[in-house]
Amino acid sequence: MRLFSRHLLLAVGLGALVLGTSGCTRIRTHQGYQVDKLLVDSIQPGIDNRASVEATLGRPSFTAQFGDQDWYYVSRDMRALAFSNPKPVAQTILHVRFDAAGNVVAVDRMGLEQVAKISPSGDKTPTLGRHRSLFDEIFGNIGAVGAGGMGGAGGGSNTGGPNGS
Q1: Which of 29, 41, 28, 33 is nearest to 75 (CA)?
Q2: Global pTM value
Q3: pLDDT band at 12 (very low <50, low <70, confident <90, very high)
């Protein structure tokens, strides 16, 4: 009977240990475009155009903000341990540039070296401009409103009748 209770206690302890450590596994995720090297290598400058690139690679992740001369395909692999912040492990940015006629000019690849690490400084964002106190914010406009003509009508003089004569 004692041997059975020891085995049961050992089994319960091992089960609790397995469940407790299962939350500490690495989580791997993929975000964005699935890069197929063969398809990407088939895009040739001077030969392909927008229609053939879209037929080969699909719609881009995003396009240039002004105009549609640049298409971007973004792919990123992330890794995290349990509840920690995910960190990029691999990244590919495929940049396809077109000329005004819509033909491919260049195909560039960028990797993880393009990821910038940004460290915030404190809980406030520094900005340029005036530094005003609370009282300046509240009482700073007293006397400034309507100071040009005191009436808001442009400051002209009124000499009589309704049409100014």
Answers
A1: 33
A2: 0.56
A3: confident
